[in-house]
């Protein structure tokens, strides 16, 4: 069985060593690098299943590393940074990260988040059952098995979490999902109050990609005080 490989990109050797210590206890193989260019090179030359990235790194910062990774790869990305502002967290999620933790951090919490992200990633990448389900509504076409989305025949590039949110809503067209419900379904983790920002940022970028700022049709409808529903 293939051993899961995790990339740790941080220019603080003590932190990288601490992460390696705890993740190796879980049986993971760890690749440590100390700058952004090395992180990109590692992803391109080795089979990386998850990346833990600092933001403030030499040569390329974590944001740019994530942008470049997302051009070709879909593995989970977790930011681990000393930057604690909401703007930094939102920026990290918008550029393509799946999670964001701040320093100082609890190593066991990081391990739990790594396990949760990998569990979901592995489940999503299992060979799909033979299935021909296609969801269509108002010019929007969703292929759940291939994880493809088309709007009026043009392919729409979504991050894994954006796709999961859209599919969740589109498969339950008459149901209203609260922010907490969306987080639990898509992230598969316990919900905390701060996680509401994570969900809302993803929905905001998803709406933009679906052209809701240009088109009259709104695929995701806000039910004020309750949550979100699919407007097919």
TrEMBL record:
Give start and end of each Response regulatory domain: 5-118
Q: Where in the cell is it found?
A: Cytoplasm
PROSITE patterns the UniProt entry points to: OMPR_PHOB (PS51755), RESPONSE_REGULATORY (PS50110)
Keyword check for Transcription, yes or no.
yes
* 4-aspartylphosphate found at: 54
Ranges for domain OmpR/PhoB-type = 132-232
The UniProt annotation gives the DNA-binding region as: 132-232
GO MF terms here are: phosphorelay response regulator activity; transcription cis-regulatory region binding
Please provide, in alphabetical order, the Gene Ontology terms of the cellular component aspect for this entry. cytosol; protein-DNA complex
Q: Which GO BP terms apply?
A: regulation of DNA-templated transcription
Alphabetical keyword list? DNA-binding, Phosphoprotein, Transcription, Transcription regulation, Two-component regulatory system
* Protein name (record): DNA-binding response regulator
Native source species: Paenibacillus contaminans
Where is the organism placed in the taxonomic lineage, from the top? Bacteria, Bacillati, Bacillota, Bacilli, Bacillales
